[in-house]
TrEMBL record:
Protein name (database record): POTRA domain-containing protein
Signal sequence range: 1-32
Cross-referenced Pfam families: POTRA (PF07244)
InterPro entries: BamA/TamA_POTRA (IPR010827)
Keyword entries, A-Z: Signal
Keyword Aminoacyl-tRNA synthetase listed: no
Organism expressing this protein natively: Gluconobacter kondonii
Protein's UniProt keywords contain NADP: no
Domain POTRA, residue spans: 130-203
Superkingdom: Bacteria
Length: 209
């Protein structure tokens, strides 16, 4: 006799945390003249602060520019979006502030990140037994089967509990010297976590040796 796993539909679920991203830009000017967003500036330096879950090297790669490059404020805005996309691809939420210090035709960039804590893994959703029934039993009463088993309507159900009841049914038939083969059949009428369990029993003349 084999026990078909009750949990044919897996109750384990993988929680993929939704990474959120918020970005801002702050600019400091050493002089009164404000360059237009499309005016090239010389990138003097770029620094990353506040990251722990995403490596600095990956952030700088997404940023896309190095000291000495020419870059516009529009391009720096686009680099901020790329960093946000990097965090989303790693499933890490973050808020990002890109601070620009412009002096003449040069700009220094500081990327300040505030990463969100990792989401806790989702817990498996418990199955609930809506009904348990016995089918095909004639030599052993339903009342005796119910008394021997533990699964009850309204209670939880698992493969472990199912296995225990299977052994209890086997022991009951052996004590009554009645041979038996049986199979638990689980259905999900509402396509959710509620289960209907039917023990399909095939009785024999006497217990097998």
């Amino acid at each position: 006799m084999s026990l078909r796993p009750l949990l044919a539909r897996s109750v384990l679920s993988v929680s993929l945390a939704v990474a959120s991203f918020a970005g801002t830009a702050a600019t400091e000017y050493a002089f009164a003249a404000v360059p237009a967003p499309n005016v090239p500036l010389k990138l003097m330096s770029v620094a990353v602060q506040g990251n722990s879950r995403v490596p600095t090297a990956d952030i700088l790669q997404a940023f896309g520019y190095h000291a000495g490059d020419k870059v516009t404020r529009n391009e720096l805005d686009a680099s901020q979006k790329r960093i946000g996309e990097l965090y989303s691809s790693r499933n890490v939420g973050t808020s990002l502030e890109e601070r620009l210090r412009i002096s003449g035709d040069g700009v220094a960039v500081k990327i300040i990140l505030e990463e969100q804590a990792a989401s806790a893994p989702a817990q498996p959703t418990a199955l609930v037994l809506d009904k348990v029934a016995f089918q095909g039993n004639k030599k052993v009463s339903t009342a005796d089967l119910e008394a021997a088993t533990k699964l009850r309507a309204g209670g939880p159900v698992s493969n472990e509990l199912l296995s225990a009841d299977q052994q209890a049914i086997q022991g009951l038939y052996k004590a009554k010297n009645v041979g038996v083969s049986f199979q638990p059949q689980a259905t999900y009428p509402n396509h959710d976590q509620h289960v209907v369990l039917v023990w399909v029993i095939n009785e024999q003349d006497k217990a097998a040796n």
